[in-house]
Amino acid sequence: MTETVKLKNITIVLNQPRYPENIGAAVRAMRNMGIDRLIVVDPRDYDLEKIRKMATHGCLDTVAAIQRQTDLKAALESFHYVIGTTARLGGQRRTGKPDATAEKIVSISQENQVAVVFGREDRGLSNEELRLCHELVHIPTAEFSSLNLAQAVMIMCYELFNACVPSKPAFTPRMAQRRELDAMLDQLRDILIRISYINPENPDYWMHHLRQFFTRIQARAREVSIIRGLIRQVDWYAEKRYRDGRRDERNRIMGKGAAECD
């Protein structure tokens, strides 16, 4: 007996697609693989007639249910796990292959909402947008590499559709939503700047490894809440020590002045 990806918990996200035909073709690819949830972020051209034509008549219900968003970060806030697709390699990008990622998603998808994000046709996802993702996927090709957006969507959806693991799968609890994790990281960055642990001139550089760590460990919502509580306590204590120091210094100066008067 095996367990497969819970497809109803998978959402495809197209970030700033340029052509409505690609949106329609992506819908058709998704539906062939049993996935029917689509978010389109800030499309350049959202011509519904062209979208419907490429999606075909059998997918019109999915087209009608498309969620439109204006900002990628806001669109991903409610998801527990975010997969970003990228054609570029190197640098600090650690990427996996579609089949291995899909197999990993089997257990995660049972109790968590998963988003698979695709970037613009001409330049993909920016570095800042990739930081919103827990994991990056690269679709390997031969020397000639020019996948159409809908083709890339089909490959990822196909691998998710086929992925399975032998039972009994590992238990995966509800993970922190993307907005919960980002709020914690923003709070952590601010306190690390205040206590002079990281360089305030370039905090993103110093936060990169911490961001990778917290996304890699698949933090639970309760764990994120505990860490945020610890950060608030550190902030309170640092502020208290600062106020106590100012008071002691003021008392010292006043005491010195009184002694000189005597």
TrEMBL record:
Occurrences of domain tRNA/rRNA methyltransferase SpoU type (ranges): 10-158
InterPro entries per UniProt: Alpha/beta_knot_MTases, RNA_MeTrfase_TrmJ/LasT, SpoU_MeTrfase, tRNA_m1G_MTases_N
The reaction(s) this protein catalyses: uridine(32) in tRNA + S-adenosyl-L-methionine = 2'-O-methyluridine(32) in tRNA + S-adenosyl-L-homocysteine + H(+); cytidine(32) in tRNA + S-adenosyl-L-methionine = 2'-O-methylcytidine(32) in tRNA + S-adenosyl-L-homocysteine + H(+)
Keyword check for Methyltransferase: yes
Signal peptide (from-to): none
Broad class of the protein's primary localization: cytoplasm
UniProt GO MF annotations: RNA binding; tRNA (cytidine(32)-2'-O)-methyltransferase activity; tRNA (cytidine(32)/uridine(32)-2'-O)-methyltransferase activity
Quaternary structure annotation from Swiss-Prot or TrEMBL: Homodimer.
Protein name per its UniProtKB record: tRNA (cytidine/uridine-2'-O-)-methyltransferase TrmJ
